[in-house]
Design goal:
- 2 copies of one chain form a homodimer.
- Chain A has 364 residues and is of the alpha/beta class.
- Helix content of chain A is 30%, strand content 24%.
- Chain A has helices at residues 40-47, 66-72, 90-104, 122-138, 186-195, 209-219, 221-228, 239-249, 255-260, 281-287, 348-358; strands spanning 5-10, 57-62, 81-84, 109-114, 118-119, 142-147, 158-161, 174-181, 198-208, 266-271, 275-276, 296-298, 301-305, 311-313, 319-323, 328-332, 336-341.
- A 5-stranded mixed β-barrel of chain A has the order 6-9-7-8-10.
- In chain A, helix 1 (40-47) links the parallel strand 1 (5-10) and strand 2.
- In chain A, helix 6 (209-219) crosses helix 7.
- The longest helix of chain A has 17 residues, at 122-138.
- The radius of gyration of chain A is 21 Å and the shape is globular.
- Chain A binds chain B through residues 20, 301, 303, 305-306, 314, 317-325, 328, 330, 332, 335-341, 344, 347, 351, 354-355, 358-359, 363, and chain B through 20, 301, 303, 305-306, 314, 317-325, 328, 330, 332, 335-341, 344, 347, 351, 354-355, 358-359, 363.
- Strand 17 (336-341) of chain A pairs parallel with strand 15 (319-323) of chain B, so a sheet runs across the interface.
């Protein structure tokens, strides 16, 4: 285990696409969406157990989620939970973590990972991360991981790589990035996949701290300067108050848009480790194991009769009986129940808005 | 208001046909199944508010439901709640109440009514009861109420009356009973209804205490003797212990089978007061008002989208969102959720058995 290796887990999302399983009070990363006994955050943390010492893993989250993080990760030191006073997208989150790490280890090599993604092939993931970290520690490269696309997914951003030349004969999957793209229309996505030059953007970054800080300074100076002015305060009692002020004025911007799309030294490592950002109930249904009736049930007391193709989540102590349901999402929580056709899940946005307006914000 | 008028409300049922809304711990009569803000027991009690003084209303129930009765009927005196140590069907229940009333008023006229039926036309009901009580107080008649059938219901018992002659020119709806029948097959039910000689058995009895006690003594002497031997103990501290012993040995038998089918002085008064025994979800769906989507919703925060023909019950504080459901029963309680096609409700028996066996008796 390399003591210069660090991991920054970004756990500040507040998505309600999995309502009512996820809510603003308890977003997806803090939920055992896969029904495996671990939340996505816990799975993400565990994924790096052999990569670096636990004290080198930082979690960046919102102030409101600090206690959730500490409760779900008893191994983490409280000072390793970075609390953002406001949500400002990924660039400020990473800049903050960079300066924190810089204060203790300027020679760090850092992996930045979202807390709410699924990785089915943990061993492949570990090997890829090790390889990427090794490359990043030796080169001034901003490395991102690209997932070999298995179909034209329109919910992901794509990364086009330069297929004309290899960067490293020992690592043929590492290529120079030509282009980052937003979520494409279906026809475009199909062209991307067929071309063989595009990968799914998994939002995972590996770089040396030096390279990352240099890139931020160059491409996002207005963000970098805010955090740079705090040098001397990181890991001291003055940090919290300083960060409070920084986040009041700092602009919200993604690291993709603010840094990766502008930098010239961006590389992508192609990999296939059973990755998904589990952005929709549909993707979760696909990911989870299903029984003979094509149902995937999370809960202790779920009874199904003439019920097929359903994804069901219920608390352990609740009896859920479903009869005659086809292809539905059924989610039972302490405060809400949702029954919705799987192919109508795009209605969730309107549903959550209706519930918030008519029943109250506390439900969403 | 006649001070010799008494009412015995039978509230000892433990049906689970409305599971999970009703459970053994809280059966149907203690639930606001109609969503009107009153439980069936409360509605039944209120129905007799102008018939007799509240201290003349007795509720017979199981030991386990005493607190529920007292909580739901703050007007009732605790000594008016008769607790049966065991369930022995309707005859012992009525015999017990008879002896209790006899100890305080041998000249009583008594109405016996189930706690868990629905009456939509309260004013008609009141007039019919008044008329029946007046007749019963003046004659040695065992009067039962018969509902003019609107269709061949196979879930009710039927009463055939003698259509050849009127008993009382001033009360043409009062006829002598020829026959009590069990729940018929559909073809038989149709014949019954078409004949014009059959009425639904509503399980409501009106008689003078003298006539009732005489009929029990004659047709159910083994039951009557058990309760008769307790004379002197009713309404004293010895009552509870005595009743405990009686119920240990008393046989279980219905008043219909044990008394009404045998007695020669049985009369039926035909009436139509929007009666239902609400024995099934289907009958409850028919009874309750429905919205433009043919849904009937009880709950404060129920949201429906592309959902039709559903009957939904949810606690006030729970958000329930239903999308794409047709003709379903959806019931949400603190401990359980049921989603079941309305035309498959006969599966409830099996479902409740499965839940009891696999999740535990506390759920049913």
């Amino acid at each position: 285990m390399n003591k210069d290796y660090y991991v920054v887990i970004m756990a500040g999302g507040i998505g309600t696409r999995f309502w009512p399983m996820s809510t603003v009070a308890c977003p997806k990363q803090f939920i055992d969406v896969m029904g495996v006994g671990k939340t996505l955050l816990q799975q993400t943390f565990a994924r790096f157990a052999n990569f670096c010492p636990p004290e080198n893993i930082l979690v960046v989250t919102g102030m409101a989620y600090r206690d959730l993080v500490l409760a779900q990760l008893p191994e983490i030191k409280p000072e390793n939970v970075l609390c953002e006073p406001h949500r400002k997208n990924t660039a400020p989150c990473i800049a903050y973590a960079n300066y924190k790490i810089h204060a203790v280890n300027p020679n760090a090599t850092v992996v930045v990972a979202p807390a709410d993604h699924v990785v089915l092939k943990e061993d492949v993931f570990s090997r890829v991360i090790e390889e990427a970290a090794e490359k990043a520690s030796q080169n001034d490269w901003l490395i991102t991981l690209g997932i070999t696309p298995s179909y034209p997914n329109t919910g992901y951003g794509y990364i086009q790589f330069d297929s004309s030349k290899e960067i490293d004969p020992a690592c043929p999957s590492l290529r120079k990035v030509k282009l980052f793209t937003e979520k494409p229309e279906f026809e475009m996505a199909r062209t991307f996949v067929e071309s063989g030059e595009f990968l799914w953007n998994a939002g995972l970054f590996i770089w040396s701290l030096k390279s990352a800080m240099k890139a931020f300074k160059e491409h996002l100076p207005e963000v970098d300067e805010l955090f740079a002015s705090g040098v001397g305060k990181y890991n001291t009692p003055q940090e919290a108050e300083y960060i409070q002020k920084v986040y009041l004025v700092c602009k919200g911007i993604s690291v993709d848009y603010g840094v990766m799309e502008k930098a010239r030294n961006v590389y992508v490592m192609a990999a296939d480790f059973g990755w998904s950002d589990v952005g929709t109930w549909g993707s979760l249904y696909e990911l989870r194991p299903k029984n003979a009736d094509e149902n995937t049930l999370v809960g202790k007391n779920i009874f199904t009769y003439d019920t097929h193709g359903c994804i069901v989540n219920a608390p352990k102590d609740k009896v859920v009986v479903l009869q005659g349901l086809e292809d539905c999402i059924v989610v039972e929580t302490a405060h809400s129940l949702l029954v919705c056709k799987r192919d109508q899940e795009q209605m969730l946005r309107r549903i959550v808005s209706d519930v918030s307006e008519k029943a109250g914000e506390k439900y969403v």
